[in-house]
Specification:
Blueprint (H helix, E strand, L loop, with lengths): L2 H6 L5 E3 L5 H12 L4 E5 L12 E4 L9 H4 L4 E4 L8 H11 L2 E5 L15 H15 L3 E7 L5 H11 L4 E4 L4 E2 L4 H13 L7 E4 L5 E2 H12 L5 E4 L1 H8 L5 H14 L9 H6 L5 H8 L5
Parallel strand pairs: 1-2, 1-4, 2-3, 4-5, 5-6, 6-9, 7-11
Antiparallel strand pairs: 8-10
Helix pairs in contact: 2-7, 4-5, 8-12, 9-10
């Protein structure tokens, strides 16, 4: 019997935090599909709306003592931090008191590429949580996804549905969008398979595409050309004023500006773990199943 088969036979549940969000819910689905018992942490179990068979337990990162019932008896924890940073140390202490195995959804702030090297509060928070996990001696895997493929729909669907041009800055800046389902599948594997302890996995899609190229691919998938108009950074700030939080806008513009003229950072980690990785075109075809 292999180590992975031994691990699969562990009947203790995997605890998924952030289980009602789009990433956490996808991790729940991947674990269930693999036949792994799942426990979900949520502030309000009555509103969780998770699949049958999921054990839903109340808990809140802002009250670390409330995490104990969810942590007792868990085999591993998927940590997606969803609270202010004040209680990170106490929360990690609680995890370490009950569980040895943790998979943390972080960001690529250590990656030596200009796109990922711009300082921001989220990167600082992730770095501190990683430090706490290491200090606690947990058996950890850190997942560092880049841009998500579904951002294209979040950002551009309203204009595309309206038949308007996509108006966006940095037309030629490349990223390698990763499908969240691939991220979730990697997370699930690292939670129940052996061999991933100590892993520091930067997760991207398999190909580099500029913003303009991504819009072109969407047009090819939906069957009509989508005009693209490049905005200056200042024009982008004006168009998003009052719609997007200014710190988010500044963070994105700083990252895109730093990456301008550099090839995108692309890894094979998703394919290495899963055997294949979805292309951006495949992601678009799945996300945009309805005509636009």
């Amino acid at each position: 019997m292999t180590n992975d088969e031994n691990t699969r036979e562990d009947v203790r549940p995997v605890l998924v935090t952030g289980a009602t969000g789009r990433i956490g819910r996808a991790v729940v689905d991947e674990l269930l599909a693999a036949g792994i018992p799942v426990r979900a942490l949520t502030r309000d179990p009555a509103k969780a709306e998770l699949p049958d068979g999921v054990e839903v337990v109340a808990g809140d990162f802002t009250d670390p003592a409330s995490l104990d019932p969810a942590l007792r008896g868990a085999r591993s924890v998927f940590l997606l931090w969803t609270a202010p940073p004040a209680t990170t140390a106490s929360a990690i202490d609680r995890v370490a008191a009950h569980v040895r195995r943790i998979v943390f959804l972080s960001s690529p702030h250590r990656t030596a590429h200009p796109f990922f090297r711009q300082p921001n509060p989220m990167a600082d928070l992730h770095a501190e949580i990683e430090r706490l996990i290491t200090a606690a001696g947990l058996d950890a895997t850190v997942l560092r996804p880049g841009m998500f493929a579904s951002n294209a729909r979040l950002w551009w669907e309203p204009a595309i549905r309206a038949g308007a041009p996509v108006r966006w800055p940095y037309a030629d800046v490349e990223t390698a969008p990763v499908d969240e389902r691939d991220l979730a599948a990697v997370a699930a594997r690292t939670l129940y398979e052996s061999g991933h302890t100590g892993g520091d996995y930067v997760l991207t899609g398999p190909e580099a595409l500029s913003h303009a190229d991504q819009v072109r691919v969407i047009g090819e998938v939906i069957g009509r050309e989508i005009p693209f108009e490049e905005l200056t950074p200042d024009a982008f700030r004006r168009t998003t004023d009052g719609v997007w939080p200014r710190p988010v806008v500044d963070m994105l513009l700083d990252a895109w500006g730093a990456a301008d003229g550099h090839p995108a950072y692309v890894t094979t980690t998703v394919a290495d773990v899963l055997g294949r990785a979805r292309t951006f075109r495949e992601s678009v075809a799945d996300y945009w199943k309805t005509p636009l």
